[in-house]
């Protein structure tokens, strides 16, 4: 549960008074809360932990990290239904 | 070097290793605090690539592993109630309580659900107004802002059927406790990078000064860890004890101010028991008084649970770096990831599980 994964902001919307974004993690798309990185804009990379962006990240580092995670199968571990039979 | 070709940039890794090997003149013991780092170290065999005298001690930084038994037992008691939807991160489901785990509760008819984000639990509360939705709020400072937000959301949405079972733990007091322990061998720390993404680095200089211990803020990819080791060993060899940020791409010294403001509003510091370690003063957060109505411990009468830890399990010593997992008699025999006796065998970030998964059965 401790993994924090970089992803690219695809779009930003306001839902119930909360700033949310659709974020792409090397092909997997998830809704992510942007309240803690409120000025992140479309196209930028953020580090996401349990559905919340906690910091921004430059594109080069983000792509490198994502490639590494994908190679090790960590993205499946993070976004698959781990722990569910 | 046998595992080097697995690194994303083998040349960079080889260069860092060369520098580490060249700088070491005597043995040193380093503790990586974060379970993600432990996982990475074992998976890539980093400990075996380092000079012989450099020992990596695995720290207590896996929130699933250190959640106290009584909290697990409270979770089990709440999850078993008929009108409850109990939500948790997936890796909590197999953590053994005194008698059973959340999977067992589910197989016995309890409504236990795995969520990816705590906001999913808030959504469930909204969709199920006639049920009580409880979220298991565990984690270090990295996870706490997400869990804090659920309480704010629940209040804003006027939800009366949502609550949080809170068991947050804090890293800096744990570092102090490790250094105060009589048998402590740790000479330098690789601090948990994503904890610092939220909290910044400000809490560490007093610790580095008081205990004369280098603290290097480190990410958890293999190259990050090698860089953290390089900087920590460099300081040890030079007799320095400073705080260094080896993960600047994700960690600003001031942390994340918006997240910190939310944490200060929703939580207050409390003493917290760490599974296997015991009580560490000021090492946790609980809901602040003004959010009491969202505290699952107050909503459900689960204060008087009785706990019983497996007598075979030595995870407390593992978590403090006093014992390697494969030195436990139950390791790989009576205790496996499929049938764990202790929490450090459950989560993939736990030291016992990492040893089991990556070739440490010899
Ligand atoms: S191997 Fe199992 S029994 Fe031994 S310390 Fe680890 S979790 Fe406990």
UniProtKB/TrEMBL annotation, chain A:
Gene3D superfamilies: 2.30.30.140
Domain of life: Bacteria
TM segment ranges: none
Family the entry assigns: Belongs to the HupF/HypC family.
Name of this protein: Hydrogenase assembly protein HypC
From TrEMBL, chain B:
Keyword terms, alphabetized: Iron, Metal-binding
Alphabetical list of InterPro entries matching this protein: Hyd_form_HypD (IPR002780), HypD_1 (IPR042243), HypD_2_sf (IPR042244)
Family statement: Belongs to the HypD family.
NCBIfam families (alphabetical): hypD
Gene3D superfamilies tied to this protein: 6.10.20.100, HypD, alpha/beta domain 2
Lineage, opening ranks: Bacteria, Bacillati, Actinomycetota, Actinomycetes, Micromonosporales
Keyword S-adenosyl-L-methionine among record annotations: no
Full protein name: Hydrogenase formation protein HypD
